[in-house]
Amino acid sequence: MKLIAPLALALCALLQSPASLAADPVKARADLKQMGVEYTEQQFATVAGNGDKTAVDLFLDAGMDVNAGGSAALGVAAGRGKLDMVKYLLGKGAKPTANALQFARTRGYKDIEKVLVDAGAKE
Fold first, then answer.
1. 14 and 40 in contact (C-beta within 8 Å)?
2. CATH top-level class for 22-118?
3. How far is residue 34's CA from residue 111's CA, in Å, rounded to a whole number?
4. Which residues are CB-neighbours of 59 under 8 A, at least 6 positions away?
5. Which residue, of 2, 31, 43, 108, has the greatest Cβ tally within 10 A?
6. What tens digit of pLDDT does each residue of 56-108 get?
């Protein structure tokens, strides 16, 4: 019994790890579906706005353009105050848009506003 508990914990950690999720497009879409997430631009923006890096990675692995929907994912993340996600999306090639900047500014997220301006966002 003492051996089973550590093995079970290790298995659970492995199964929940993003590394256990597929990096090929077909598997990534299947993993999203298994999570109950549709492969759409709207859902991509939603998971980014929720700060869900695992789901964002699956969308990108599945072939989603980081700038899909006019960089909607970046805008939603900025508008919801998800600084880490904003930085992550920018690092993945998201274009720093005026909309994302305005969403951050009108909601008072000064740190995100600065990151977006530093990345080249203009009004």
1. no
2. mainly alpha
3. 35
4. 28, 32, 39, 43, 44, 47
5. 31
6. 999 999 999 999 999 999 999 999 999 999 999 999 999 999 999 999 999 99
Scanning the structure block, which residue is given the tokens 């077909």?
Answer: 26
- Token duo for residue 116: 């977006």
The dihedral through the CA atoms of 18, 22, 23, 25 has a sign that is negative
| Beta strands in the chain, from DSSP E residues, in sequence order | none
pLDDT at 92: 98
Are the C-beta atoms of residues 97 and 75 closer than 8 Å to each other?
yes
pLDDT(2) > 70: no
For 10, 30, 64, 69, 71, the CA distances from 57, given in Å and listed in that order, are 23, 13, 10, 17, 16
pTM: 0.80
With vertex at residue 40, the alpha carbon angle to CA 15 and CA 29, rounded to the nearest 5 degrees, is 35
